[in-house]
Amino acid sequence: MMTPQEAYKLFVYADHAMILVGLTALSTSIGLGIYAILPGTKGRRRRPLLMTLVSFLIFAMFWGTQASVLIAFFNPQWTPLQIVLFALPVVVMLAGLTTSIAYAVHAVLKRTGKQRRQTVSKSLLGVVVFTAGVAPHTAAMLIPVISAEDHTNRPGTLTHIGEPAPDFELSSIEAAPFQTVDLRGKVIVLNFFATWCGPCRMELPHLQTIWDEFQSNGDFQMLVIGREESDDSLKAFRQEHGYTFPMASDSNKTIYSKFASQSIPRTYLISRQGTIVYQWTGNYEEEISKLRKLLRKELAKKK
């Protein structure tokens, strides 16, 4: 089994291969287009122009697949439209790959001499191009299977379960002080989010239910921190959505940088002693259920 970090690197390498082929196709298209309009090629323009069109179509197809790859890798819950957007490029790439292989086999078996070499060369080029095109899609589909599903240690995570949580202090948007050192003896739920972040916005209603259930417990404290947000933006956001849990801004990522270097939302459960009991990255309903159970367990412990 691969770790999430190794699986992410696999995806990045495959995606970079597709981007490289797409940029090569664009460069080829521009070069052939310039060559086709040169004065000395007046009688031979048809073929370069055709190759220019083909190269540009390859470029457009490869860069168009970026959207479907991102959909597959970063969105675990697909809509029918997203399934179509992901599947269409895969079908096109696989059709091109199959055709290229078939032409190569046919040339080896049925043709001879220069014609065989030319056909095999073109077919192998097609195999390379279409393999690079389908590689990121394949990686995006296989990563959930071959990598351990671990939401607690995603790339960019600087903290670990069982270790002390970084200490920090700041003021909420109501100017109430929040100092982790002064909150020893309380169980804390800490969340980092941003108002523009889709998964964050999907997770916040679940955190509101946590706040509604446990806010009356004197040993419980919760804080939702807006990464690179201002007090004014958070006040407007909270009023718009009707959230009542405490919020604070971290405009320069000063607090966030103690916990992670990338990715939101991030949620932490911190014990009375200041130790990280649990943490995860992303929006997953099963993690909210786990948080609720662990929170009850921590609150039941004696001081």
Describe this entry's structure for a reader.
The chain has a five-stranded mixed β-sheet with strand order 5-4-3-6-7, with helices on one face. Strands 1-2 form a two-stranded antiparallel ribbon. Helix 1 runs antiparallel to helix 2 and helix 2 runs parallel beside helix 4. Helices cover 58% and strands 12% of the residues. Strand 6 and strand 7 form a beta hairpin. With 303 residues, it is an alpha/beta fold. The model has no long low-confidence stretch (mean pLDDT 79). The protein contains eight helices and seven strands, in the order H-H-H-H-E-E-E-H-E-H-E-H-E-E-H. The chain folds into two domains: 143 residues, no CATH class; 132 residues, 3-Layer(aba) Sandwich (Glutaredoxin).
Radius of gyration: 27 Å
- Number of beta strands: 7
H/E order of the elements?
Answer: HHHHEEEHEHEHEEH
Shape, principal axes of CA atoms: elongated
How many distinct folded domains?
A: 2
The percent range for strand residues is 5-15%
Poorly predicted ranges (pLDDT <50, ≥5 residues)? none
Spatial strand order of the main sheet? 5-4-3-6-7
How would a textbook summarize the main sheet?
5 strands, mixed
In whole angstroms, the N-to-C terminal distance is 40 Å
Structural class: alpha/beta
Indicate the mean pLDDT.
79
Q: DSSP helix count? A: 8
Helicity range: 55-70%
